[in-house]
TrEMBL record:
Lineage: unclassified sequences, metagenomes, ecological metagenomes
GO molecular function terms attached to this record: hydrolase activity, acting on carbon-nitrogen (but not peptide) bonds
Name listed for the protein in its UniProt record: Amidohydrolase-related domain-containing protein
InterPro entries reported for this sequence: Metal-dep_hydrolase_composite
Amino acid sequence: MSQTEPVDALHNNPPRVWALTHAMIHTEPGTFIKDGNIIIRDGQIEKVGRYIQLPNDTYEIDLEGAHVYAGFIESWVEVKKEEPPKSPRDHWSSKVRPEYRAVDDVSFKEKDLKQFRSLGFTMAHIIPEKGIFRGQSGIVTLSDPPKTVLSSIAQVMNFKYGGWGEKEYPSSLLGVIAHIRQTFIDAVWYGKAQQIIQKYPDENELIPSNISFESLEMARQLNKPFIFLTRDEHFAHRALNITKEFNLTPWLLGSGYEYRRLEFFKDQKPFFIFPLEFPTKAKVTDPSIGLQYSTEQLKHWDLAPDNLQHVNNAGLDFALTTHGLKNKTQFRTNLQRVLDRGLPKDLALAALTTQPAEAMGMEKSLG
């Protein structure tokens, strides 16, 4: 027998084709196949159905009585950003890095991967952690090690500013809004200038190359989503004013306060990513402590679990995330709380599978 090199250990030769048989297969929210079969070849689903012939080389696993769903998509996982050496092509502000890709710094602890998978998550939307123009989000598998599925999905934005002691501009909310707008204005100008120079090279002086403006304007031209972090409905309104001014595709990391100003979202209809995090129960048994809570705080504690239902009734799509939870095992408890308040189960399933997959342009392979 011929071989390419000597064998110094037993071969690890797992099956290439698997068949999951006799399961209740939930192909999409509200649709299922009883006593169905799934053929998986080389890690990819090849066929799904009830009456399908199993290939001869199949390794069969009988799942009678089990329910099979698509793997959940964790829609917001922040990764720490490694600061590369500054380049002359970078934007002058270290808080503006739209060229940065979060997937380049992906790293998970084994216990975190196990926790995600125990909750049903198999994919993660990776988010850059720092800055105003944080950079590009991407999709990775929650395998060990993670594998990049799509390196660039959206540009991530944050109204990040410091106080009086901040060494770098901006140091106020007004300043960060002005900074964001000016950066977009500069990027649009840069894109138009480059087009003119390419068309009339002999009549125009070259301008310095700027990778930040290139990345930002390319994302805008390709209609890539721009995700804004929001703290309340007012930050959402500010974000939508910016996306409207510069003709951007708006996504929002929800704050939980959207129910208070649903009319803000009727025009642009942004896609939301909602953390299942709710305010803690007010300690009102002690009058001296209870009087410290405002009526607004008490009202929000009561209404926060209804936010998703109000957003859905307004015709807005959304995904769910464990982001913000100190203990991720609280995710299922909080999800059940939302379901108990009236959110349809199929819609909750869609928010973990088909809706984020479609929003991210991955509906043919995820969800």
